[in-house]
Specification:
Elements (H helix, E strand, L loop, with lengths): L28 H8 L7 H17 L1 H14 L14 H15 L2 E7 L5 H17 L2 H15 L1 E9 L8 E7 L4 E3 L11 E9 H7 L28 E13 L2 E10 L2 E5 L8 E5 L6 E5 L4 H4 L9 E5 L12 H27 L3 E3 L7 H5 L17 E3 L7 H17 L17 H11 L1 H28 L4 E5 L8 E5 L7 E5 L2 E6 L3 E7 L4 H16 L8 H9 L6 H32 L1 H13 L21 H16 L2
Length: 655
């Protein structure tokens, strides 16, 4: 799933691995070795072994693949095939409701440093990482992941470096991976512990021949086939070949190194272990003055495809089950109830049809014109002879008892409860509940399962962000310009960023070199936009604080004491604002006292006017007696004045 091309004559640095290699001509030594297979560590024998492992992995997830295809039929409401039983939309509606909950809480990230030296870098990453995801149209990917996870019980996202982006500069690519095309070691519940990981993709043969001429005569679905959904359209794959991406780990200097191979049938298209060329840099020898090539690091085979050493995938399971990487989804939980509802609905509809459109018994020799009788547009039906109940009699239809309708209603409630999609989620409330705040409270209480699911989505999103940061650390060698969120004045901001601040940094204490320090970060995930009900709740809380006088500086001590035992989002911001107002009030009181005392010395009448204005505006009373001396020796420090003003303000504002 990695991207990119290696053009003839191009030497790739170890810090810029490429996924796809075009082998044309013999313009460099690497090309010749890969074409002839003389020194390549990964050749046809290794590919054959890898394909055999892939077959075993596929056999291990055969039941999962069958379940995924069946679940997709439920989503398309085709679970009954050609049967006369009609499908109802109860399960579909439940999944759609939970999807809305997930998208209402679309995440964003706040990156925090683990050391104070990295604060500025963390703030910059918090601004540019969302831009990188936006350039990937990640909201669409997140939407696809949400649908897939809710339907199938799990999902996989791939986080790759794509060298073809930005005219060859390259950038990060985040994609959804279909579970039918994803293979891991059976029984593993942590993907990073799998011995191998494979992804497959059907690619048109003509495209493969254009990119990889050495594949001529080797294409076609020979060694492995890919499971397919039951498409509504006629999808022809006879002209396509299965391209396999193979990931595994090796050891280098006691470090786990990620290796990557791309192949089709028995032809190796790219293999990181075959990239043994050591990157060099031309330097001038200070003694001889001769330019020489100096190694700048290990080869790609030793360094690994990605520096972070992880499989470039983030896996999520909705409802985990033991011994499986992928859990249960809403379709798995609700499918049995949905089948019963379909059968009940079909039976009830048939009964209603029989009751509203009765059928009749007619004697074989009854002289009734059946054509006219069945044609409801005919007002006259001709008969011969005597017409009585012996000739024509309606077929009796027994109406369904109310117990069946109640049972149907109970099954729908069961499905809603099992999938956490009660009526209150859709804005409906029980009789007697009409206030918006009461409905919001009911929805908040009923949404605990949805919030739990969102936390699962957030954990996977956090894994994606960690790998995005690591790819930025490895590949952003050149400065890139990003348009980030506007500043406080609404002005657009453009910033330049490269990986120099997040690469290993030297540590020096007292002139002693302590080696290199790798800047590390924590990722905090929150909803990008709160739900309307959450916004309303926070707005009402803020208005309540205002009504209670929490933002009145004269009541700051009481407000802070109350907030100390409260718990709500952004509590620290409210406390900071109250403390700021209190500080400003203290300074204002100080200058008011100073102005009054100066006015008493210069113009007592003016002092009375100022004192009256202060009292009218809710200030403090005019001090009685005493004069202030402007002599520094009489009042050596402003700190004493500030302390006295603070003490007087506290005494006068006590309630």
């Amino acid at each position: 799933m990695a991207e990119g091309l290696l053009k003839p004559g191009m030497i790739r640095e170890a810090s810029k691995p490429l996924a796809d290699v075009v082998l044309r001509g013999t313009e460099n030594e690497i090309t010749q070795k890969l074409v002839t297979g003389q020194t390549a560590k990964i050749g046809s024998d290794e590919i054959a072994k890898a394909t055999e492992i892939l077959r075993k992995y596929r056999e291990g997830k055969s039941k999962l693949e069958a379940k995924i295809k069946e679940n997709e039929q439920f989503w398309k409401m085709r679970q009954w095939g050609n049967s006369k039983v009609e499908s109802t939309t109860w399960l579909w509606t439940c999944i759609q409701g939970r999807y809305s909950d997930a998208m209402d809480s679309y995440p964003t990230c706040n990156i925090k440093p683990r050391q104070s030296d990295d604060k500025a870098t963390a703030k910059m990453l918090s601004s540019i990482v969302p831009v990188v995801l936006e350039q990937n149209r990640y909201e669409e990917t997140y939407s696809d992941i949400a649908w897939y996870t809710l339907k199938q019980g799990g999902s996989v996202q791939g986080i790759f470096w794509d060298n073809s982006k930005h005219n060859g500069i390259g950038d990060i690519s985040v994609k959804k991976i279909d579970l039918l095309n994803f293979f891991w070691e059976p029984g593993v519940t942590d993907l990073q512990k799998s011995a191998n990981v494979f992804t497959t993709e059907l690619v048109d043969n003509e495209i493969l021949l254009q990119r990889y001429p050495q594949t001529e005569g080797h294409l076609g679905q020979k060694n492995i086939t890919v499971s397919k959904y039951l498409y509504d359209d006629n999808v022809d794959t006879s002209h396509k070949s299965v391209v396999i991406d193979w990931y595994y780990h090796t050891e280098y200097n006691e470090k786990r190194v990620l290796q990557y191979v791309k192949y089709v049938n028995d032809v190796v298209l790219f293999a990181s272990e075959n990239e043994t060329t050591v990157p060099t840099q031309v330097q001038v020898d200070p003694v001889t003055g001769i330019a020489v090539e100096v190694p700048t690091g290990p080869s790609l085979a030793e360094r690994g495809y990605y520096d972070h050493g992880l499989y470039p995938f983030a896996v999520m399971n909705l409802y985990p089950i033991e011994g499986s990487l992928i859990g249960y989804g809403l379709t798995d939980i609700g499918r049995c109830t949905q089948l019963k509802l379909d059968e009940l609905d079909t039976a009830m509809v048939e009964n209603a049809k029989d009751g509203s459109n009765p059928r009749y018994f007619i004697r074989e020799n009854a002289a009734v014109n059946e054509a006219e009788y069945l044609d409801r547009t005919k007002k006259i039906v001709h008969v011969q002879g005597t017409l009585d109940e012996q000739n024509v009699r309606p077929i009796d239809t027994k109406p369904l008892d109310s117990i069946y309708a109640n049972f149907y209603s109970m099954k729908t409630d069961e499905l809603k409860s099992a999938t956490s999609n009660q009526d209150v989620h859709n804005g409906e409330a029980s009789s007697g509940v009409t206030a918006a705040s009461a409905i919001a409270a009911l929805q908040e209480a009923a949404g605990k399962n949805a919030r739990s699911t969102n936390r699962e989505f957030y954990r996977t999103y956090r894994d994606v962000i960690y790998q995005v940061i690591e790819l930025i650390r490895q590949f952003y060698n050149q400065p890139r310009v990003f348009r980030i969120a506007p500043d406080a004045n609404g002005e657009e901001q453009f910033v330049s960023f490269d990986n120099s601040a997040i690469k290993p940094q030297p540590q020096m204490i007292g002139g002693i070199d302590l080696g290199l320090r790798l800047p590390e970060f924590d990722v905090s995930v929150t909803a990008e936009k709160a739900s309307p009900y959450k916004k309303m709740e926070m707005n009402e809380l803020a208005l309540n604080f205002y009504a209670q006088g929490f933002f009145n500086p004269q009541m700051a001590d009481q407000a802070l004491a109350c907030l100390e035992i409260m718990d709500f989002d952004h509590k620290d911001l409210v406390i900071a604002k109250i403390q700021q107002n209190q500080t400003l009030q203290m300074k204002l009181l100080q200058f008011e006292q100073l102005a009054l005392q100066l006015a008493q010395q210069v113009n007592p009448q003016l002092a009375d006017q100022i004192g009256s204005m202060i009292l009218q505006e809710g200030g403090q009373p005019v001090p009685s007696g005493g004069e202030i001396s402007l002599n520094a020796s009489a009042n050596p420090s402003g700190e004493a004045r500030l302390e006295a003003a603070r003490e007087q303000a506290v005494n006068n504002t006590k309630i």
